[in-house]
Amino acid sequence: MKVCKFGGTSVASAKQLKKVAAIVKEDPARQIVVVSAPGKRYEEDEKVTDMLIKLVQAALSGEDVSHPLEAVVERYAIIAGELGLGKEIVETIEADLEKRLQEDKQNAALFTDQLKASGEDNSAKLVAAYLTSIGLPASYINPKDAGLVVNGLPDRAQALPESYTNLSALNRRDTISVFPGFFGYTREGVLRTFERGGSDITGSILAASVKAEMYENFTDVDCVFAANPRSVENPVEIEQMTYREMRELSYAGFAVLHDEALMPAYKAAVPLCIKNTNNPKSSGTMIVAERDISNRPVIGISADSGFSTLYVSKYLMNREIGFGRKLLQILEDEQISYEHIPSGIDNLSVIIRSHQLSPEKEARIIERVKNELYADDVHIRSEFSMVVLVGEGMNNSTGLAARATDAIARTGANIEMINQGSSEVSLVFGVLKKDEKKILNELYKEFFEAAIVV
Amino acid sequence: MKVCKFGGTSVASAKQLKKVAAIVKEDPARQIVVVSAPGKRYEEDEKVTDMLIKLVQAALSGEDVSHPLEAVVERYAIIAGELGLGKEIVETIEADLEKRLQEDKQNAALFTDQLKASGEDNSAKLVAAYLTSIGLPASYINPKDAGLVVNGLPDRAQALPESYTNLSALNRRDTISVFPGFFGYTREGVLRTFERGGSDITGSILAASVKAEMYENFTDVDCVFAANPRSVENPVEIEQMTYREMRELSYAGFAVLHDEALMPAYKAAVPLCIKNTNNPKSSGTMIVAERDISNRPVIGISADSGFSTLYVSKYLMNREIGFGRKLLQILEDEQISYEHIPSGIDNLSVIIRSHQLSPEKEARIIERVKNELYADDVHIRSEFSMVVLVGEGMNNSTGLAARATDAIARTGANIEMINQGSSEVSLVFGVLKKDEKKILNELYKEFFEAAIVV
After folding, report:
1. Are residues B55 and B189 in the same domain?
2. B94 is in an annotated binding site
3. Is A425–B344 a contact, with Cβ atoms under 8 angstroms apart?
4. How far apart are the first and last CA of chain A?
């Protein structure tokens, strides 16, 4: 049995849903289908989820909801019409939305969650109706009935262990199960959503629950590339990589899969495949437990900008037990997470994503580090990028760090930070944002171009 | 005016003290002399400080102290005899020790401090008597009278700001001031010692107080070498380096100067010179604020073994605000300080000096990280070494990291950790202890041998 998850662009229109149906039909192992809410049909189009957010805002502020409600229903109606489905499914969806609008608005977060989740929920109903209409018997599965149980507020929604037992029942059905992504229910029956993009998580939980032979994640790209095609011309396709490599690449913008989606499949040892709804013949990128690293020690290079560094120096800092802990406490008080902490003997730097900072926060942090930690010097600099070299071969090939630093030296750019040593599969360079692209290209040339020639 | 500090081997015997006198006599600017307790005269000899520790132990356990006391007095008596000094100085020293033995033993730490400090104190009295006897009018200066005020227990003794004002009076004396190193007095008049090796600190405080033109630290080596002569054959001598470079080199065993001794001189902009009592003609190593880096971007390479790494991995760790802080809190609860924290996306390693760990501590740490932080994996590995490349040029020359990693790659050894980015003057490599020496030699070859040929 395979679990297939189709993203927003894959269920955005009748044309796309016909591709989905063909994919499901082609392989009888595809018994569980997880769907997102309809996404964009073209660049300027609006995603159903964004339309639902507008509907929520209107409802919460007491405005007339008829226009935004109509817009959502219309999106489904267009798809249903083009697929030749009867009026019934559209009426079901409209009634569902009206019922959700009557829900308690006291807790705005929960009201928002249940209305946003309708995007995936109604998408699943529509897809089940369509598959059935073309002779592929399919049932919409309600996550509450199926037992996708999640934790309650104020935590971020995450599946509880019992979900896996409950959902394993899905491998004993004789019709195709169409399951809405993105949400579950607490033990008390309250709907809670995952983070945006969380349909990937639903698919992974289902794949783990039924011990699927594979979790296929259908998107609108053929595969994961070895570098961002926006920065590097025609990067090579990654045919196969390990879970760890995928995870380290996600560090800096390889946003093919939601961060939380890897773990359920990984723990259940279900291989994951990234495929393209628009080009299903392409073999895609397989994510597995182990791979042969002999001809490709580096699997990919990611880069991300928008980092700042908090530099702190204090004479004899290294002897002061508790210094680092107190510094991190100050950041925690500002609700700031950090990426790396390179350190010298009397100084350390904390690498932070800049979006977490503001002039007020920076001033408070500097003030506290000076006054509470008696630092000799404190300052914050921004406009840094992180370039991350990822590969299972990182740990065994001594020459890799040398090749990488040589490549960066060739660009004439300075290396502001090097971090290696905890992850066995990544090597991180901190560089000035202005140098990011040329460094990324030179590293790509060093580790991938020779391979292309062969 | 120059402040000269003479270490234990420089005041260990009459022969050595004659060298000291010649050095003091040679330059009339040498107006303040700071002395350690007599050290070893030959490899198997016992330092006076160690003899005093035995005396303390006997006194505290209520044993007969006559034998250990006699041993200490005898050491001074031999020196005094060979210098042709009268009996008086030896009687003064003996009376002083007997008086100290009568002090209150309730607080063992303070009793120990005041007895240990007699090593330096009586050394200063002896040196003052000797200099005077050969026509160099000199006075023993009592740190209490002179106002070297330090903080009280339970902190580590450190000079309070008023000391600098008090001690500045020493530049208005017309005899040579001989000042005992290693201790001061609290505002309440209680004797407190610095850390072992703390005579260097006393000298630096005095040099800063009198705004000396130079602080000369006389040891038994000609200079600071670019690498440890025990690991690298005939390393080059460092003629000049900056305070920051000296500080970063102290990371890993360049133990020429006590850690805390650099700051007073640095803050008062007093240049520091490391010189050899046994070879005063040698120009030594000058430690200054700035140097020309054009022909020597790397000034030295230090290496130290005895490091362990605590590895912790947890899925989505990087999103969890407070994870690093909680981990450091667990180490702090065990009174453990750390050196570096390299990190990947879902994992981090804490580099710790192994002597701080024990099987019990390791078990408690692993248990707590698993149970309190819900880590997926925790383990501790040992037998690591840190190799540190130090140089003011580190920040401006991109090629340095490439040259260093290339050199390590040539040895065939693996790089376990790279840390660069906070200090502008150092680049740290974590390697297996077994590879330390070959890496150190290859790095030395890369950065210094070409210079020797020129």
Report:
1. yes
2. no
3. yes
4. 37
